[in-house]
Structure formats: C-alpha cells, structure tokens
Amino acid sequence: MTTQRPIRTRFAPSPTGFLHVGGLRTALYAYLLAKKEGGTFVLRIEDTDQSRSVDGAVENLLETLAVTGIEPDEGPRLADVDHDMDELHVEEVGEHGPYIQSNRLDVYKHYALQLVEQGDAYPCFCTPERLEQMRTEQQKAKQPPKYDRHCLSLSEEEVVRRIEAEESHVLRLRMPADQTITWEDAVRGTVSFESNLIDDQVLLKSDGFPTYHLAVVVDDHLMEITHVIRGEEWLSSTPKHLALYNAFGWEPPIHVHVPLLLNPDKSKLSKRQGDVSVEDFLDDGYLVPALVNFIALLGWNPKSEQELFSITELVEAFSLEDLNKSGAIFDRDKLNWMNGEYIKQHDTMDLLMHAHPFYDEKGLLEEAAKRVGASNKMDQIVMEEIAKSLSIEQTRLEKLSQVGEETDYLFVNALNYPAEDLIWKKSTQEDTVLYLNALQDLLSERPEDTWVTDALEKDVISWIAENNWKNGDVLWPLRVALTGKPKSPGPFESLWALGKERSLERISRAIELLAA
RNA sequence: GGCCCUAUCGUCUAGUGGUUAGGACGCGAGGUUCUCAUCCUCGAAACCGGGGUUCGAUUCCCCGUAGGGCCGCCA
Q: Is A319 helix (H, G, I), strand (E, B) or coil?
C-alpha cells in the first residue's frame, strides 16, 4: 500500500454553456467524498476543444455551482471586482493552478515532448481524410478500428524534415504491446483491457492543444488528485490513461466510475428526451436541495430507509462503498414527489423568496399590485398578498412553476361560474340562498382582524351545528362562491386570503346568481 | 462489428447460502373531509434464462440472453 495522502477530488467539466444534471451528480459525489474525509474539492475547466468553446460558459458554470452550494475549495471562482460594470470576473484560488486547461498549454506540450523523447509517443502526419478512409476500410473488413501506425515507421530524417517544414501533425501515444491493463475500480472492482486492442490515442492535437486524455492525466497528477470520480462512459478510456501514468512513472489515482443517468428508454440521459441542465430544472421550479437530494440517490444508497437528506446529512452518510454499479433512470415522478416534500417542509416566508420570481413571471405581482393599489409590484403589501396565495397552495405544489394555478381566484376580480355549481349534492337552490344569506349576515358582523382561519372555522362550524344544518350544504356553496370552482382550496383559507370585503362581495354575487 | 460494463417490483433501491424478499415513487382501494390537494390505513407489483457448486440458491461459478457505454485531432 502507498502512503495515505490527503484526499483530493475534482470536478472537471468542459464548459459547454450549461451544467448537465449528470455532471452535477458527479460533482456532488466528488464534493461529498472530499468533505466527508476532510479533503479538498477541486474544480478544473477542461476547455481543450477550441471549436466547442462557448462565450461566458465558465462564468455560467460557476454561477450554477454557486447556487447548488457545491463549491470548490480550489479552482476558478467568481469575483465581483468591478461593481460599476456588474460584470463577472473569474479569479483562481489554490496552489495548483492555473485551473483552466487552455491556460496550461505549455505544461501539456512539455509532457507530450517528454513522451516523444522516451519513445512513448510519436508524431503522426496522417490527414483526417486518410484516417477516415482507414476506419471505413477497417469497418468493412470487420476489424477493430485502430490507427494503423503508418507514421510510426517513418524514418527519423523524414520526421525531422516534415516537422521543420511545419507540416501539420499530432502526437500519438505509443500503446504498449501485449499487456493486460488492470485496475481496481472503486465501484466496479477489477477491470481489465488488452493493450493490443487499444488505439494509439492522439495526445497533442495539431493546434497545440492537448486531448482530454493527455490533459486529464497530467492535471490529475500535478493537482495531486487522489480519486477520479467520473461517469461510466470513461471506463474504456481508463487503460489509455493508465498507460500514460505508467509511461510517466506516476502513481495513478483511485478510479471511481459511477453509473450513468438514463432516459426512460435506458439510453444515456440526453437533452433530446427532456431537460438535462441544472438551469432548466431550477427554471422549472425545482428547489436546489430537492434536486441535489434526488440525484444523490440515483446511484448511491445509504443502506437505510431514509430518503430525505440535507447536504450536511449527505456528507455525513456518504461512502464510496455504497455506490451502485448499474445505470439509473431519471424518474421525473419521484423528483416531483421529492420536490413537493421540500416545498411542504419549507417555512412559507422563506419559500416565498424562491417562489417570488415565478409569481412575477406570471404577472401575478402586477395584478396584485393593481388590485391593492400599490405603486409598484415590489411593495410590501404585494408581498403579503402573494404570501397568502403561497401559504394556501404550499401543500398543493410539486414545482414552483405551478404557483397561482390553484389560487388563481385570488388574483381576479370577477368570478365566472355557472350558478348550479353553488348547490351541494342534494341541497336545493332555495336552501343554498338561505345559507349564503345567513353566512353573509354572520360574516359581515365579524371584525376583519378576527378572520384568522382556525378561529373563524371553529365558529362557523359550530354555528352551522347550532342551526341544525349540514356542513356540506353550507360550506360547499360558500367555497364555490369564493373560488368559483368545484375543486379548490377550502372556504376558510379563502376567506382569510380574500379578506372581508372581497369575500362578502363574492357571497352577494353568488346570491344574485342564484336569484337570476 | 470489436472491447468493456450491467442485470431484485413499471421506476429508484435494501437484502440473504435457508426471509412471508423490505422501503420509497407511481398505481389501486378505503378512511379523514364541503370539493380537490394534504394526511392516515390497506393492497397489487420483482429476484432475466439455462447449467453447475451445495442438503439448499435470488445470493457463489460458468454459459447464454437482454440492456447500456466506448471505439474522433469531442469531452
């Protein structure tokens, strides 16, 4: 066994412009392991593909990571240096930088050349066209697709001449022959590949940028990463990486290949079949802790029956041994349930902060402002109106994007519904008018400041009993009068949210409707 | 096609050489209730197949089968 090093994990996304939920889960596991073991969680940006670089992607990624709370101890970080410009700047913290690969080009070049000197890598001048043709032929002949080492047999003079002529070329790894490359994967156990079947991977591209394979090995080593936690799709690249560690004489990290997140059809989770970016989920009204909790349980299980975990509890419970091997379908139904649980458990006022943008988006702030005569939609009084709505619908929401759907009757002035909806089951029109009139009398005498739901409910219920009426006969019409809907939140919370004046108006209107 | 990985309810999963194979989501039924939602109770629902090993395999081994991943100067 090697000496125990302090645990260092990393999340190394390529900046595509958004954070994939699968990426978030990988990041989460790396974060959890580091935190659990008192180690360091590193963020590294893998932007070695010039053609795929996206403007502002790094900033965007850092922002998203920041809202999820999975923040790196080392790596790029958002710095708000220029307050006037309100622009995002990226700074770096840590002793192992730079953490953005495009700023480390000379490092990769240095190590690539070292391999050439050692004879573990060689220049290749083959054109993309030739390579493509070669692959097609191999495919046709049912051969494993693999570089034919055409350029390995070039004479030293020719290589020197072509390089001096600045001919476009790459550097390829010279894969060792007749070896079985084996490693102990933390989730999969012993995994092995035959080196003869593995391609001579390009390490340095003709534009001077490294490929993922070179960069990841060099950086993980230089950054002293102890655990490489990544998706299963990297499993078959690992022998190439191991060959590199071996060529450099470096000790490889522990590899942890976590199972894939799957579409309902069991293919790799993709944009094609719904939302995959963390931003999408947040915009759809999922709460960060719910999303984090949900993805944590996709591929990891604490061996207990607990399902709801705060991030702190996840850190406490996390263990590499409890990772699963098989892919997990991303089940929206269960996510919705879990999100609903988080919404229910949230303090209403605190939840309001998260829900506020969704009310705003639907124009409900403006409507409320207009109705209460507030000068603008950010007034305290508007917030109070929204808070009423939220507290009524809180147990009915699965996603914050649904706000206002169950409580739309609070935001309109005139209700539109058929008069017969007011009459409960076997009750009659005459009786219903009687009940509504009685309710109107009762409620109009009651001071508004005693319209606290519980107290009001108790009083009305006992008043109904005193009159020898039935709850359904009286409460159904009251509820429909207030909400205009056969299915809706209850009458007492509606009375409370609407307030005395609007409630009485609606009751009068119901009576008129029945009389007509 | 080659290589590799995986396999318990529809889904996420627990579990063991002998269990009534457990939980959760979803689904169904009932209860609470003025409706809906919440909440509570109950229910249906799984060890991929075939060979071994064994007194006994869902569990261990092998072979199938199925699903998935990778096979780029993408990551």
A: coil
- Whether the predicted model's global pTM rises above the 0.80 cut: yes
Asked if strand B contacts A301 at the CB level, meaning under 7 A, the answer is yes
Q: Exposure pattern of A89-109 as b/e (b: 16+ CB <10 Å)? A: ebebebebbebbbbebbebbb
Looking at the predicted complex, does its ipTM rise above 0.90?
A: yes
Q: What is the CATH number of the domain that holds A491?
A: 1.10.10.350
pLDDT of residue A286: 98
Protein CA at A502 to nucleotide C1' at B75, angstroms: 59
- If you search the block for the tokens 């001048």, which residue do you land on? A125
- Whether A271 is a known active-site residue: answer yes
Q: What is the mean pLDDT of chain A?
A: 93
Of A410, A431, A453, which residue is a domain's last? Answer: A410
Clarify whether residues A34 and A109 are in a common domain. Answer: no
* Whether residue A249 is found in the same domain as residue A360: no
Asked if residue A91 belongs to a domain, the reply is yes
pLDDT tens-digit map of A333-378: 999 999 999 999 999 999 999 999 999 999 999 999 998 888 888 8
Which nucleotides along chain B are within 7 A of a protein C-beta?
A: 1-8, 10-15, 22-26, 33-39, 67-75
3-state SS of A422-452 is: HCCCCCCHHHHHHHHHHHHHHHHCCCHHHCC
Q: Is A100 left (phi over 0), alpha (psi -120 to 50) or beta?
A: beta
Mark whether A239 and A114 lie in a shared domain. Answer: yes
Q: How many domains does chain A have?
A: 4
Residue that is last in its domain, among A242, A258, A274: A258
Q: DSSP assignment, residue A152? A: G
Phi, psi of A157 (to 5 degrees): -65, -45
Per-residue pLDDT tens digits for A47-62: 999 888 888 899 999 9
Residue of A140, A142, A268, A271 marked active site: A271
Order of all β-strands in the sheet with A254-258:
A40-43, A8-11, A227-231, A254-258
